[in-house]
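Readers of this paper often ask what the protein records in our data store actually look like. Below, we set out a record of this kind in full and without editing:
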Amino acid sequence: MARAQSRYVCQECGAVSGKWAGRCEACGSWNSIVEEAAEAAPGGAAGLGRGGRPVAFVGLTGESQPPPRMTSGIAEFDRVSGGGLVPGSAVLIAGDPGIGKSTLLLQAMAALAANGVGCAYVSGEESVDQVRLRAARMGLADAQVDLAAATSLRDILAGLEKLKRPGVVVIDSIQTMFVDSLESAPGTVAQVRAAAQSLIRLAKARGFSLLLVGHVTKEGLIAGPKVLEHMVDCVLTFEGERGHQFRILRAVKNRFGATNEIGVFEMTDQGLQEVPNPSALFLAERGEAVAGAAVFAGMEGSRPLLVEIQALVSPSPLATPRRAVVGWDAGRLAMILAVLEARCGLVIAGQEVYLNVAGGLRIAEPAADLAVAAALVSALQGTPVPEDSVIFGEIGLSGEVRAVGQSEARLKEAKKLGFRTAIVPRRRRAAGKRQTLEGMDLREMTHLSDLIDEIGSAPRVVAGPRSRSAEGQG
C-alpha cells in the first residue's frame, strides 16, 4: 500500500516545503508551518493536450458591453466597488476585529434587498439571533435578507443551490469555513483556499456576487494565503481606529473599477453613516492658526482629500530623542528630518518629534512631504503656517521640491473649502514665482529653503496652546 504523502505549509504566506522547520524561509514567521496531506495530482501533464475541446481565440478589437451593476444606494460603498457590485464577481473585505465589517455588509445587504436584489447572509462566527439583534439596533429588522449560521461548506453550498435567485451572498468569514474532505483545521491555508475556490466557482456559475469577509494578522495583513487575494476580483480593506469615529473603506484591487479609491464612513449608534464630503469633516475641528499644523491636499484614488498634519517638536532629555508617527511612514519622516538638517541647516538632532495625521487617516503618497516639512518647520520656529494655505509636493534628498500629479484636482478641492493660498512645487511652464490659478494665489517652491523663508516671514507665536495673537492671521 502506498504511503500517504504530506507536505508542510506556512499558515501565514502559504509557502510549501518538504520538511518541517521552526521558521518559514519565505516570510520569516515562527511556528507557522503545519503538516498537511498532499493534494493528489489529476494525472501526468504529458497527455493533457489530447482529447480536449480547443478554445476559441479572438482579437483585441470588438465590441464589449460594460458589466451590469447592482447599486446599493450607499454612495461610498458603491464608489469603492467601482459603481456597484458586478454579478458573478468575488469581493474580499478585510479589516481589524471590531472595525465594522459585519455592520457595513449588513447595511449593504439591507439596501440591496430594498432595491429588489436577493440577498443571503451566512455567518460562521455569530448565531442567527445575534445577527438579528444587530439588525434591530440599526433599524434593519424588516430587511428581506436570508440569514444562516453555518461553517460546513458542503451544507452552505447545498443551501445556496436551493435559493431561487440569489443576487448577493455574504460569507462572514472565510476563515471559519470548514471543508470536510480535508484533514486540516479551519482557518489553515488548505481550508481557506479550498473553501474560496468552491464558493467562487458557484458564484460564477449561478451569477451572484460573492462577498467574503477576511481576517487580518497582527501586522495588519490579510490572513491566509496570498493566492486568496489573486482569486477574487476585488479586495477592499477597512481602515480606522476603533477609538475613532471615522472608518475608511479602501479598494486595494478592483478588476471592474479604480484601485486605491476610498469611501469614508462615520461610526454612530445607528451603524455606519456615509460621509459625502470627507475634507470638510476632517477639517471641522480646525480653529485659528497654530504653530505645527499644516493642511495637506492629497489624492485618494480619484478623490481629492484635505487633511491636517500636526507636528510637535520639543527638547529631549534622552540621548536618543523619540520619533513618534501616527498615520504616516516613519521612514519617510526620518528622511525629511535628515534633509532639513543637511540641506537647510536646521538643528533637530536633540529634539523629540511627534507627527500626527488628524482624523485617523493613513497617508501613503509622497506628495505629503512638503506639508510634513511645513508642519515641522512651523513647530520648530514657533511660527504658524498661514491659516488659508494648503500644501503639497514631494521632496528629494538634495532638498529640491518636485511636482506631483493631479494638481488641478487638489487646488479645486481647496478652493471649494475656502482656501486662498497654495504652497506647491514650481510647475514646468510657470514663468514667475507667483501666479493665480482658479482664483488661488500659488506660491511655488523649487527648494526646501524656499518653504523655510515662506514660513519664517509669518508672524511668530508661542508654540503650544492656541494664542490670541494668532487669531485672524492668514
In short: The first helix runs from residue 75 to 80. The chain has three domains: 6-36, 75-276, 281-464.
